[in-house]
Amino acid sequence: MKILPGGICQAGTTRVNKTGGWRNFKPVYNYDLCIKCKLCELLCPDSSVIPREDGFFEFDYDFCKGCGICENECPKKAIDMVLEEK
Amino acid sequence: MPRENKLDKEKMVVVEGSYAVAHAVKTCRPNVISAYPITPQTHIVEDLSQFMADGEIPNCEYINVESEFSALSALVGSAAVGARCYSATTAQGLALMHEVLFNMSGMRLPTVMTIVNRALSAPINIWNDQQDSISQRDTGWIQLYAEDIQEISDMTAQAYKISEDKDVLMPAMTCMDGFILSHVYEPVVLLEQDLTDKFLPKYEPEYTLDPKDPLSYGAFADPNYYTEFRYLQEQAMQNALKKIEDVANEFYDIYGRYYGGLIDEYRTEDADIIIMAMGSVIGTVKDVIDKLRNRNVKVGLLKVRAFRPFPADAIRNVVRDAKVIVTLDKNITLGLNEGALCTETKSILYNTDINVPVIGYMLGHGGRDIKVDTIERIIDEAHEVIRNGIKTESQFIDLREEIL
Q1: Which of B24, B93, B289, B387 lies at a CB distance of 3.0 to 4.6 Å from B89, suitable for a disulfide?
Q2: What is the ipTM of this complex?
Q3: Cross-chain residue pair A9–B207, CB shorter than 8 Å
């Protein structure tokens, strides 16, 4: 990649840089407990909580950095942070 | 080659230095002005706001802000959308801009800012020295220093042309001594609108912020990329060396006025003693040189117009055959007991075949007058160095020991 003076670049290029690799713990839903309250979607700082047609959500592991905010905020404890093993 | 400075007496008017600068800014057709008033810069921004109120600056926004930090931050955004930007400040105000100075040069945004040089607090002092701009030398701003009101006025247009050049794209400070130049009335030729429109083309940047075609400026550069951005900034400064000379010549061709490019020389031919200085003290030094030349003292002046980029080659060429170099500094690097011009001059002579002693004098701090007899005393001491070598490499020359 060539650089431009001043660090000028196309906008929206964070889509190319998949930051999911920074994660130590990955969030996993327990759909039996989830009440579809959408707090996880609202509070995710990386827009990595993706709504599904059935009203539940799933994680975009390409960009989820594993910050755990969703687990912390979930009122039904429906999200577990599971150690990432590669 | 020294050039005759052709001042058209028909065009001359007597105005305050600040007015001449404000008028020059107006003539350069800025699109955004943002500044916060601070002594002794105030008259420049007052005059500009008067021009705005009178509708004399078309297609321009004057942004009122709550601090110098905001003033320059507003210009970062404005320059990124392709506006020709202007600000002015001094001392504590410039210090408050410190972080944004790096942002502006790092994003390679052309801008011109007049620095009305003033001492830094504490103790509080509103009078002139050059500690404020010298302290910002590593921020990636071009720094030019003017000798008189005519030069600082004309330098404004020159600075835009240098800063906006596609091979440079670095912001520029034009520095004038506070009060000594900003508040003095002198006969000057105000920057001519018709000639300026010929000299200074419209600013047309290659990239601009545009919601229809979004870009990111100053984006994240991790250790894999950051070094290359710093390298490009240094390359731009090296390109500016030539551009400053070219622009001074182009200015002469159109306006007939010339003050030197990177440097200027005054009676340096055959000079044993070469005095190096920046800013308004040049006038006093020239008077002393004329007086001493009448007594066959071989002394000359090297006026440093560009402090950043530092004109190493141009200086080496002038001082090569001198017997002693004397630097005058209205600033001090505390902990080294030297002014910046002294340090830089010594550094560009090391590792060369030039072996001329350099002695530095710090003077005129916090607005203390620099008198003719002080310069004469310095030249006497320079003679002593030629005869017996250096005893004191750098010192304050106008210290009042009786109050210590």
Answers
A1: B93
A2: 0.78
A3: no
**Amino acid letter at B400?**
R
- Domain ranges for chain B, please list them: 9-255, 263-403
Residues B111, B43: Cα–Cα separation, whole Å = 20
Q: Which residue of A has its CA nearest to B212?
A: A11
Residue B226 at interface with chain A, using a CB cutoff of 8 Å = no
Give the Cβ contact number of residue B97 at 10 Å: 26
Which residues 185-214 on chain B approach chain A with CB closer than 8 angstroms?
A: 207, 214
Closest chain B residue by Cα to residue A8: B217
Q: How far is A7 from chain B (nearest CA, A)?
A: 4
Tens-of-pLDDT digits for all 404 residues of chain B?
557 788 889 999 999 999 999 999 999 999 999 999 999 999 999 999 999 999 999 999 999 999 999 999 999 999 999 999 999 999 999 999 999 999 999 999 999 999 999 999 999 999 999 999 999 999 999 999 999 999 999 999 999 999 999 999 999 999 999 999 999 999 999 999 999 999 999 999 999 999 999 999 988 899 999 999 999 999 999 999 999 999 999 999 999 999 999 999 999 999 999 999 999 999 999 999 999 999 999 999 999 999 999 999 999 999 999 999 999 999 999 999 999 999 999 999 999 999 999 999 999 999 999 999 999 999 999 999 999 999 999 999 999 999 99
Instruction: Tell me the C-alpha distance between B338 and B347, whole Å.
Output: 13
Burial (Cβ within 10 Å: 0-12, 13-18, ≥19) of residue B208: middle
Residues of A with CB under 8 A from a CB of B: 3-13
CA distance B225 to chain A (A): 8
Say what the pTM is. Answer: 0.91
Residue of A nearest to B110 (CA): A6
Q: How far is the C-alpha of B269 from the C-alpha of B319, rounded, in Å?
A: 10
Nearest CB to B108: which of A6, A10, A12?
A: A6
What b-and-e string marks burial along B128-139, b requiring 16 or more CB atoms within 10 Å of the CB? bbbbbbbbbbeb
Domain at B263-403: CATH code: 3.40.50.920
From residue B349, give the alpha-carbon distance in Å to each of B271, B317, B385: 18, 11, 18
Q: What SS3 state is found at B216?
A: strand
Q: Is B274 exposed, middle or buried (0-12, 13-18, 19+ CB in 10 A)?
A: buried
Are B238 and B308 contacting, i.e. CB atoms less than 8 angstroms apart?
A: no
Residues found in chain A: 86
**CATH of B9-255 given 3.40.50.2300, 3.40.50.970, 1.10.10.10, 3.40.50.300:** 3.40.50.970
